[in-house]
Amino acid sequence: MRGKRNFVWAVGCILAIFLLGGPFILPNFWTWIIIEIMVMSLAAMSVNFLLGYAGCLSFGHSAFYAVAAYTTAIMMTRTGMNQYQVLLLAPIMAAILGALIGLLVSRLYAFYYAIMTCAFAMIVWSIIRRLPGLTGGDTGIVGIKFSGLLNGMTNIYYFTLVVVILCGLALWIIGNSPFGWSLRAIRENPDRSAFISIDVTKQRFLALVISSFFCGIAGSLHVVYSFGAFPELAFWTKSGDFVTICILGGINSFLGPIVGSVVLIMLETMITSVTLYWPMVLGIIICAVVFFMPEGIMGFVKKLGWEKVNELKT
Amino acid sequence: MFFQVANLEKSFGGLKATDNVSLHIKQGDICALIGPNGAGKTTLFNLITGAIKPDAGKVIFKGEDITGKTAREITRKGIARSFQIVNVFPMLTVYENIMVAVLSQKRMSFNFFHPAKKMAREEIINHLENIGLAEQADMLAGQLSHGNQKRLEVGIALAMKPTLLALDEPTSGMSVEEKGEILDTIRKIIKMTGCTVLLCEHDMNVIFEVSDYIWVLQNGRIVANGTVSDIKNNELVHRIYLGGKR
């Protein structure tokens, strides 16, 4: 037990040093990769807020991600709006879209929910492509310049780090509030939940709105580090990435999406540099993980006897 | 009248599961609903608690018409139920099962910021002690024995602080000793909370032991009603339910 605790402390300290000193310790290439991982973690955490707590599998989060990214890109290139206001407006737009979709899907369960949310993502994707005047069509919007705190790799890195940590904390607090527990009750047994006076549809609706808001923050951070917004962000495979990350990391753990995005993006980066057939290699690895660690990496860690992990359960 | 059902009807296809049922419950009574398999007991429970909507008739609770309201609204008004087939939150611990009910009862479901595990601890532990599951508080509900799951089932209903508690076969699938224990528990709780009870049960010994008033259901109709001694002496009830002549 003591050895384990020391090990966790050691790993934690090394991670903290890397995270805090990132741009000064790591080569530029890896700094950008870590920024990408952080943004992906936030998006995946927002997906897991629905999946892990409320039991709703959404394939529509690419829509929220893209709507926030495009809001950021359009407002930055076409209006003189303050960049911080833009970064606040973007997730609100995503949450409004989340509310609209939520009105229609909150009564649905299991694969009906997944398919409907996926359909809405595809609608958003096609709208983005059909409005070249506003969205730049297939080429998207590129060359977006931010200033001040959002200018330069080091600034972007620390800005992203702070925002992602704050959002993670917020999701943790909401997840462990009575609201979060009512979502778990719904996940476990929606029928019985109604008999303890939980408004099942309303809670699931609110969960989607909250989730889309945080996914929107990730979407606008995407623009900050990639300087552009592209239609692929809305394509359903982007949602597929988020869901894959959650499953890979473990949907029953709060840290699952973070671990998942670290593993997936690291693998992707390293395998891409070795072989052109990286999707195939990645596929095999994911199959192996799902087969041997059905509860994801965090589930596997728990099985190894790390009981403390239990306290992080969704 | 505390609780009243008037001319309630429900059909499933060609089957009249509830056929012109009228009954009433006095406040503070333990009222039993008996009848052979397929008599429509659970259907009547479902109609009363909002799980399904009646085709016709009225359900009146404390002078208010609650016919056709949703399960959530009816529970909020003070009618909580337990289920014949165990219906708990399997991957949550026993403590968490009671916690979600207690927090919902306190209308906390829209509190986004307070750590739930630190709220209403005493009340939750109190409930756990009352239903005799304090020692199993940290076990997953799905891993409890059947008997303990049935206890939890009743505990979740009680956490809603009902004024009318509807128990759908709380002892089904239990051994004789377990039945005795859970009945003692239920009686203790009823005495403590003073809630009115509508009990649906198969075991006649259980019924005769605990109830103040009995309604007999057959083929979706009320065929007899009365006190324990009335029912014990009722020829019709003997023929259809207690098996043959005395």
Automatic annotation (TrEMBL), chain A:
Annotated compartments: Cell membrane
| GO molecular function ontology, one term from the record | branched-chain amino acid transmembrane transporter activity
Q: What is this protein called?
A: Leucine/isoleucine/valine transporter permease subunit
UniProt keyword list: Cell membrane, Membrane, Transmembrane, Transmembrane helix
Main location (coarse class): membrane
What is any one of the record's Gene Ontology cellular component terms?
plasma membrane
Query: How does this chain sit within the bilayer?
Result: Multi-pass membrane protein
Q: Where are the transmembrane segments?
A: 7-26, 32-51, 63-81, 87-105, 110-128, 156-174, 205-230, 242-267, 274-293
User: What organism is listed for this UniProt entry?
Assistant: anaerobic digester metagenome
Q: Name one Pfam family in it.
A: BPD_transp_2
From TrEMBL, chain B:
**Domain ABC transporter: from-to ranges:** 3-244
Q: Which GO terms describe its molecular function?
A: ATP binding; ATP hydrolysis activity
Q: Which Gene Ontology cellular component terms are annotated?
A: plasma membrane
Under the heading PROSITE patterns, the entry gives: ABC_TRANSPORTER_1, ABC_TRANSPORTER_2
| Keywords, alphabetical | ATP-binding, Nucleotide-binding, Transport
Recorded hits in InterPro entries, A to Z, give:
AAA+_ATPase, ABC_AA/LPS_Transport, ABC_transporter-like_ATP-bd, ABC_transporter-like_CS, P-loop_NTPase
Output the SUPFAM superfamilies linked to this UniProt entry.
Answer: P-loop containing nucleoside triphosphate hydrolases
Under what name is this protein listed? ABC transporter ATP-binding protein
Instruction: Provide the organism lineage as a comma list.
Output: unclassified sequences, metagenomes, ecological metagenomes
